[in-house]
Each structure stands twice: as structure tokens, then as C-alpha cells.
Amino acid sequence: LIQIVAIFGAILTARASERFGNIPVLIVINFIWVGLCIIAFYTRTPTQFYYVAGFVGLVMGGLQSLSRSTYSKLLPKTLDTTSFFSFYEITEKIGIVFGMICFGLIDHISGSMRNGILFFIIFFIFGALMLMRIPKVKTSNNYRWFNRFFRSKWVDANQRIKMLQIALQYTLPRMKQATNEVSEDLPLFIK
Q1: What span, in angstroms and rounded, lies between the C-alpha atoms of 188 and 108?
Q2: Quick check: 56 pLDDT over 70?
Q3: 84, 90, 139, 162 - which has most CB atoms within 10 Å?
Q4: Distance between CA atoms of 58 and 86, rounded to whole angstroms?
């Protein structure tokens, strides 16, 4: 159930991030998680549990997809993105283990799993505060205009092809320049 609903959460989150930006949407998702933790604490019936599980799926799918795309946007310009994403995956697994240890300890100490759910609120608030510290990067107005124009339903195929040609004329020299800058930093045996 959660994995199926997560697909729709990823789609909704992608649309929200196009409109508001990745970081603000991630902050809102963290606060939605806080609300879900409080609701899960008071869940008593199986029907309530399934409703909470559905909302968890929506939020989880959006959080996972948007956090990966945001991480990729924050990476420095390099050809070695696999090292960065390997680090991302390892820290994600360490976070899962750490979260489960905290959950188990709170359950063991207090005798109730519900208290462990409430403890996760601290992590989500801390995550939102950390996201608020990320500096804002201005995007080019040309990109925004191009994105809105290209996705418009009023634009026919010929106009889209013309826009792609203009975009390629604009971006290909920059891509070549970035590739040359990165290749200058590589050792000779790799070139």
C-alpha cells in the first residue's frame, strides 16, 4: 500500500517543487511528518492505521524523490557524482539504523512504541531547521521562462523544436566549457 501511494506522493511533490522550489517543499514535508507522528500517536483502530499509512506513503515517496534531486542540485560540478551518491546512500542507511536504535531504546525504556513515534518529532524538526540554513540560489529567469513556455499546451511541435534548438545553441558551449574545466583537473593517465 505504502509503495503504491508513494508514486503519487512523488508526483505531487515534483509539481510543488516546480512551483515553490525544492527546499521550501522539503521543509513543509518535514512539518507534515511532525503532524503524522502526532496523529500516529493517537491512532487506535485499524482503519485509522490504514489512513495514516496512506498519508505516510504520500509523504515518504515525495520526500525520497525530492531529497535525491535536491542533493544532486547541491553537488559541485564534477564528473564523479557516484562518490557523492554513494556517500548519500551510506548516510541514509546509517540514519535508518540510528533511528531504529532510538526507537527501540525509547520503546524499551518507556514500554510503549507510541513514545518512540513521538521521539521522531525531534528529528523532523531538526531536519527542517537544517534545511532552513541552506543558502538560496537564484535561478535564471531565462530557464523559468523556457520551462513555462515549453510545457505550455498552447505551443505546437514546431515551436517546441525551435525552442530546443535555441536552448542547445545556448547550453552546448557552456557544457563544453565545463567539460574542459573538469578535464583540466584530471590526472594525465585518466585523459
Answers
A1: 57
A2: yes
A3: 84
A4: 25
User: What's residue 83's pLDDT?
Assistant: 85
> In a 10 Å sphere around its CB, with 0-12 CB exposed, 13-18 middle and 19+ buried, how is residue 116 labelled?
buried
What does pTM read for this prediction?
Answer: 0.69
Calculate the average pLDDT of the chain.
80
| Residue 66 contacts residue 18 (beta carbons within 8 Å) | no
Q: How confident is the model at residue 186 (pLDDT cuts 50, 70, 90)?
A: very low
How far is CA 172 from each of CA 143, 165, 180, 184, rounded to the nearest angstrom?
15, 10, 12, 18
